[in-house]
Design brief:
single chain; 176 residues; mainly beta; YmcC-like fold; 12-stranded antiparallel beta sheet; 1 helix; 12 strands; 9% helix
Length: 176
């Protein structure tokens, strides 16, 4: 029993040191019809969100000293930067970790706060995963708020997220 716990702890620590997203990028298909194309670019990634074959949003992510930063969002109306960029994922995840930041975005102050609530098994159409459960809160000074639970597997990315009452799961991932 002690050996199993030690093995589990070693496995968890190994996951914590792993790369957060796949270095070469990939294509994610989710159960709500959203397709995300993660493209590795110099210094980071571009993450395009598509529905019905049309891109409706693109996140620009860059590598920094502490992890992966959200630099800005391209919408049909144009590109909107976060000033300064917001830390989206630290270099390593551990249960209980918390990070936050605030920035100017579209002429208002916004805040992002993330807590790693633990490691949890999650079953989605693409399979079963042990994933870090992250509670992500995004608020704006004008009263907007969005709280999501993300299930993130290091080296793969987000395999599920809770939107309202329902769980949106990964149907398929393919490497480039």
């Amino acid at each position: 029993m002690a050996v199993a716990r030690l093995f589990g702890l070693c496995l968890l620590l190994g996951l914590a040191w792993a790369q957060i997203l796949p270095p070469e990028g990939g294509l994610y298909v989710y159960s709500n019809g959203t397709v995300q194309a993660l493209e590795a670019v110099e210094g980071g990634y571009r993450l395009a969100y598509r529905r019905d074959g049309k891109v409706f949003r693109e996140d620009r992510l860059r590598f920094g000293a502490e992890g992966i930063y959200l630099e800005g969002v391209a919408l049909p109306e144009g590109f909107f930067p976060f000033v300064p960029p917001l830390l989206l994922y630290p270099k390593r995840l551990v249960p209980g970790a918390f990070w936050s930041g605030n920035a100017r975005f579209q002429e208002q102050r916004v805040a992002l706060a993330v807590r790693v609530e633990g490691v949890e098994g999650v079953r989605v159409p693409a399979g079963r995963f042990n994933a870090y459960r992250l509670r992500v809160a995004f608020t704006t000074e004008r009263g907007g708020a969005d709280v999501k639970l993300l299930y993130l597997v290091p080296g793969l990315g987000v395999v599920a997220f809770r939107a309202g009452e329902g769980l949106v799961g990964l149907v398929r991932f393919s490497a480039p």
